[in-house]
Design a protein that fits this description.
This protein has about 100 residues and is mostly helical. The chain has a single domain, classed as Helix Hairpins, CATH 1.10.287.3510. The N and C termini lie far apart (about 60 Å).
């Protein structure tokens, strides 16, 4: 059986990769994918904690987080496509919706 600490270390690495992706990249799609990686890292932490505590609470929370992530994907991708159609780019430095 794999120790819980391995799952937590993997979760920390995934969360760090997501954070670096948000801070370094300027493409809206890459930033969006980095947020999803961070959500999956948190889900892995919940699952590991639930497994360690012999509780189903972690799995229930993961189910709720996945539901919210699915809604986020639907709305977020629609916004990114709308911005791309109106501005022609997904670079967050070039897209400033407050300017005319």
């Amino acid at each position: 059986m794999v120790p819980v600490s391995y799952y937590l270390i993997l979760s920390g690495i995934l969360f760090t990769i997501g954070t670096v992706g948000i801070l370094v990249r300027r493409n809206a799609l890459i930033i969006f994918m980095s947020i999803e990686v961070m959500l999956n890292a948190v889900n892995l932490t919940f699952l590991a904690a639930g497994r360690y505590l012999n509780s189903l609470d972690g799995q229930v929370i993961v189910f709720l987080v996945l539901t919210v992530a699915a809604a986020e994907v639907a709305v977020g991708l629609a916004l990114i496509v709308a911005i791309f159609r109106s501005r022609g780019t997904t670079d967050v430095d070039e897209v400033n919706l407050l300017k005319w």
